[in-house]
């Protein structure tokens, strides 16, 4: 793909609006897609497993040299889970959220003070499954006027905010990977190193996977390395999973 110029951001928006993600392999919290336990499991206290849904905002904007960049956060070191890790703004869906885009925009507002009026939502991508059995929906948004964004960090959740070139997630530079196994399936974990001034970041795991896929969709080409995405099989029911936070 020949990348759209800074004056052609509308072309990028229109193209991404036409993107149709593949059907989700996960139930995504839809009760009709869940499977009830057998009588024996029910008698033992097993329950219908409905995975919870979450959404993250992949917020893209043009940098000073015209390249597409994406906003990322470094989670607070005081958090009980994923403390100090790099993440996309986002979180679990709440009852009042109208859709995945509403979830992603609400969370971005709460975490980094990003006004939803500044973001043009253009696409929802294929669903991912987190290690906490959350169905995570990446929502792609375009920040046309980055100068209008004045970050206000929620210090209880976010230590810092930074941005990186989106295309770096297609390049086999400053990247390493390792093979792991989860729920009986082998998969690849990707790690990307990024430095900005004296700050050093490692973008890995679910966040890296989402950004690899986003970059592939935006630039219309696969990465320069084997991606090896895996569609994990959700448990049909679980007493433990049903009580997960």
From TrEMBL:
Nudix hydrolase domain location: 51-189
GO MF annotations in UniProt: coenzyme A diphosphatase activity; guanosine-3',5'-bis(diphosphate) 3'-diphosphatase activity; metal ion binding
Cofactor dependence: Mn(2+); Mg(2+)
Annotated keywords: Hydrolase, Magnesium, Manganese, Metal-binding
Signal peptide feature range: none
Keyword Flavoprotein: no
Protein's GO biological process: acyl-CoA metabolic process; coenzyme A biosynthetic process; coenzyme A catabolic process
Pfam families, per database record: NUDIX
The keyword Manganese belongs to this UniProt entry's keyword annotation: yes
Cellular component terms per the entry's GO annotation: cytoplasm
InterPro entries hit by this protein: CoAse, NUDIX_hydrolase_dom
Protein name as catalogued: Nudix hydrolase domain-containing protein
Organism: Zizania palustris
């Amino acid at each position: 793909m020949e990348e759209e110029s800074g004056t052609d951001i509308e072309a990028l928006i229109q193209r991404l609006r036409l993107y149709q993600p593949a059907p989700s392999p996960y139930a995504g919290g839809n009760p009709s897609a869940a499977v009830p336990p057998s009588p024996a499991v029910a008698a033992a206290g097993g329950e219908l497993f409905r995975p919870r849904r979450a959404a993250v905002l992949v917020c893209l904007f043009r940098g000073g040299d015209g390249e597409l960049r994406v906003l990322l956060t470094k989670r607070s070191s005081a958090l009980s889970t994923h403390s100090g890790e790099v993440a996309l703004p986002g979180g679990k869906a709440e009852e009042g959220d109208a859709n995945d885009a509403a979830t992603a925009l609400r969370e971005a507002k709460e975490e980094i003070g990003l006004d939803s009026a500044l973001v043009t939502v253009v696409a929802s991508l294929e669903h991912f499954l987190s290690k906490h059995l959350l169905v995570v929906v990446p929502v792609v948004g375009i920040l046309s006027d980055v100068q209008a964004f004045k970050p206000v960090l929620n210090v209880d959740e976010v230590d810092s905010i930074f941005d990186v070139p989106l295309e770096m997630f297609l390049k086999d530079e400053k990247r390493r990977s390792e093979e792991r196994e989860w729920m009986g399936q082998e998969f690849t974990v990707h790690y990307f190193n990024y430095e900005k001034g004296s700050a050093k970041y490692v973008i890995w795991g679910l966040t890296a996977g989402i950004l690899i896929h986003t970059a592939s969709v935006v630039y219309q080409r696969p990465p320069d390395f084997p991606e090896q995405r895996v569609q994990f099989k959700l448990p049909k029911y679980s007493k433990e999973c049903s009580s997960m936070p």
